[in-house]
Amino acid sequence: MLEIHDLTVMVQNRRVLQNVEMHVSNGETVALFGPNGSGKTSLLSTIMGVPGYRVERGNIIFKGEDITGLAIDERARLGIGMAFQRPPVVRGVKLMDMMRICMDRRGGAGEIDVRRCIEKLNLGEFQDRDINLGFSGGEIKRSELVQLLAQDPDFVMFDEPDSGVDLVSIHLVAKVINELLEKEKSAGRRTKAGLIISHAGHILDYVNADRAYVIMGGNLYCSGNPRDLLEDIKVKGYEGCISCQRQN
Amino acid sequence: MSETELKEQAKKAEKKPSALGIDIDLNAYSVKAEKHEKIDGLNALPGDMKKRSESVGMDADETCRAGSYFQIDHSVIQSAVCQSGLEVMSISNALKEHDWLEDYRWNMIKVDTDKYTAQAELKESEGYFIRALPGAKVEFPVQACLYMSRDGMAQNVHNIVIAEEGAELHMITGCTTGSAVMSGLHVGVSEFYVKKNAQITFTMIHNWSEEMIVRPRSAALVEENGLFLSNYICMKPVKNLQTYPTAYCVGENAIVRFNTILFAHEGSTMDVGSRVYLKARGSRAEVISRALTDGGDIFARGHLIGEVPEIKAHLECRGLMLSEKGTIHAVPELEGRVPNVDMSHEAAVGKIAEEEIHYLMARGLSSDEATAAIVRGFLDVEIKGLPANLEREMKRAIRAGDMNERLM
Ligand SMILES: Nc1ncnc2c1ncn2[C@@H]1O[C@H](COP(=O)(O)OP(=O)(O)OP(=O)(O)O)[C@@H](O)[C@H]1O
Ligand SMILES: [Mg+2]
């Protein structure tokens, strides 16, 4: 579904990603680990096409099409979606408005579907509030997910969906992520794929990831079993974890 | 004050420029206008006139209106009432009918305020008189249209609106020109009286043309437990608009709310403020404005004056700049004249944050659609206490701003 070749990205005058090689297949769920400031959000933003992340080299192929030069909304319409780590407050635009906007793009989906999504994430009391205005950390995560439910992208990226989410809500969050990634279907039948950033990996206790990458200083290192990598990071730290690759 | 004294005072102010806004040469506009014949109902209006008046909230069917008033230039072509406890007529007739009305005229606004008020007294003028009798609940709004049919003319208007004790009155006023009219001067003096336990909601929609000069002069007196709610919407081009409506809370627990929504296109200058004097304990005021520019210049003013203890007042002014051209100058003023007052303001001016646009674009909206969604939200001011059909009318006028064609 997604292939990234030799990707180097600048933000302002700073290189945030270099020579990144990555691929995610249909039906696959990939995790992304890395320390603060290592370039995780930058990678997701670059795939999404957020202006400001300037591609210096390399390209991004989505469903066989080179999307490196496409605008953010064009990518969204092609089926790329993202739950933001820190979305902005949009005054005057209510969560409900956003839901309708996302649904409208898909055509056909009605008011009932909007309500069903809102209920799934227990956001009834937020639907008429300006988006993200005064939302708590956990509420923001749920609000991001509810928008993705409405949007229903094929390639779904989650930037720390478990950070700041309480022990009860994490079930809700996981359930929705599993739904978005069609986890109920067997891998071969899925038409979706996902990329999940997580620090502690809590979400991976509920959402099965097939593979994981580790990123440090803008370089993407090992691709491997998520549990093993997480265990390595816990014991040896990020440096220790990637040392095996550095030696190669 | 006698008629002669008034005229004398006005004469002295004939050349007096307004405290704000560019000075206008009154001689450049003719006060002469042909007489227009009375009509039977607004559906009898010619097409363009009907269309333009509907754009400022007039309901030609008049089914959901308690009364209608229609003035073209200086002729009143319709004044109709469809409910008891309500008076709707021309100010000239009202002055003949009610001796006491002289005491209300030039009472809230001084005739020598500036050359515009002076002109409204000295030159040909007309206007509406609308009054809800004591205890009358006028549920449907009264509609009034002030229409200018001739290019280059000056329309002078003097209105008086009274809600007697315990009465409830909702009004929608639309001011507009024929679509062939390019330039002109509109001077509108309006005096509002909200008696004890009474309320007036006044929604005014303006739809002028590119070369129009507009100088409304409004003031409201609000007695004990009275409510004055004013909504002003001007989304269409105008050359130069300057107004600073002022309300006086003179009775305990009087409430005043001003909502102003402006959209300045390139070539338009709008200088619009709202001022409230809080002169009685427990009185409250809320002034909210939204200023949007696509190349025009806006002064968004607000002035709250707390003269007695235990009053509460808030001013909110937000400005959004859609293009590189145009300016917004927010001037919020708070004046506490005794210590025990609760007054606050917030003002913010800027363009839409790129980050917000990108966020909406990540959900699939184009850049223009994202901008439109944010602008729509920005203009969607919550109006408390307005009847549902007026709120709809107001929203319709807001959305009919020219940005629709470009953005929505
Ligand atoms: N707009 C920007 N301007 C300046 N520096 C930026 C910008 N965006 C990202 N950076 C820098 O790029 C580096 C990578 O940032 P990024 O947000 O991708 O980190 P991250 O891995 O997501 O970190 P975290 O775990 O804290 O979310 C950081 O050092 C950050 O300060
Ligand atoms: Mg991050």
What is the structure about, briefly put?
Chain A is an alpha/beta fold. Chain A is built from 7 helices and 12 strands. Chain A has helices at residues 40-48, 72-78, 95-106, 111-120, 137-151, 169-180, 226-247, and strands at 2-11, 14-24, 29-33, 53-62, 65-66, 80-83, 90-94, 130-131, 155-159, 193-197, 211-216, 219-224.
Care to describe what's here?
- The complex is a heterodimer of chains A (248) and B (408).
- Chain A is an alpha/beta fold.
- In chain A, helix 6 links the parallel strand 9 and strand 10.
- In chain A, the strands form three sheets. Chain A has a six-stranded mixed sheet, sandwiched between helices. A four-stranded antiparallel sheet of chain A has the order 2-1-4-5. A two-stranded antiparallel sheet of chain A has the order 7-8.
- The radius of gyration of chain A is 18 Å and the shape is globular.
- Chain A is built from seven helices and twelve strands.
- Chain A has one domain: Rossmann fold (3-Layer(aba) Sandwich), CATH 3.40.50.300.
- The model of chain A has no long low-confidence stretch (mean pLDDT 90).
- By secondary structure, chain B is α/β, with parallel strands linked by helices.
- Chain B has two domains: 351 residues, no CATH class; 55 residues, no CATH class.
- In chain B, the strands form two sheets. A ten-stranded mixed sheet of chain B has the order 2-1-5-7-9-11-14-16-18-20, with helices on one face. In chain B, strands 3, 4, 6, 8, 10, 12, 13, 15, 17 and 19 form a ten-stranded mixed sheet that branches.
- In chain B, a hairpin with a 2-residue loop joins strand 1 and strand 2.
- The C terminus of chain B is likely disordered.
- The chains are: A alpha/beta (248), B alpha/beta (408).
- The site of adenosine-5'-triphosphate has 14 residues of chain A, from strand 2 and helix 1.
